[in-house]
Amino acid sequence: MITIDELQVADTPQAWEAAGFTVIDHTIQVGTVRIRLVGPDGGTGIVAWSLRGVRDDVTEVDGLATSASVDAPAEPGEHPLGATQVDHVVLMSPDLARTTAAIEALGAEARRVRDFEIAGTPMRQVFFRLGEVIVELVGDPASAGEGPATFWGITFTVADIDAAAALLGEQTGRVKDAVQRGRRITTLRHRDLGISVSTALMSPKPPKQ
Fold this sequence. Notes:
This protein is mostly beta strands. The chain has helices at 13-18, 96-106, 161-168, 190-193, and strands at residues 3-9, 27-30, 33-37, 46-52, 60-61, 64-69, 83-92, 110-118, 121-130, 133-139, 150-158, 176-177, 184-187, 198-202. It is built from 4 helices and 14 strands. The two termini are 28 Å apart. It comes from Nocardioides cavernaquae.
């Protein structure tokens, strides 16, 4: 099974500490995923990831900097924000079919497709499950543009979304219903915090009936 070991993010520890995360030696452990803060000299946003369960010679996935990992997950960290896991990672692609094929070539399977519109432009989300994390690939299904896929955003599950929003105060938007039934979401004003990756928080999945 393919799972995410690490996300490398080009931010400072201070920015993520201000957002309510516990940072130890430039790393944040959220669920089974480690976030390594490589600093702004490393670029902007998520700049690379490492994956368990892929070939040793993998270095990129349709332009996404990638490395193979055999590290076992560390113990989950505890965070003032109440973050318990990475819920999903969002990727953008100028050629949805090409990037989908590249991810599937790793051995991951597209689990679901959702079509929607942005300002009248048809868009599509393709969902993959990598361990406890959903990878959400977004693009125009009719486009076959040039250029690589890119990392776009990250969403965390928090134990109590109202408490998390209260902790962040004006650094986050209002809590509202998410697309996922029974869940709620809020978006961080990440630039105000010095965080370079689009970041959101979601309530836990509701119990199965």
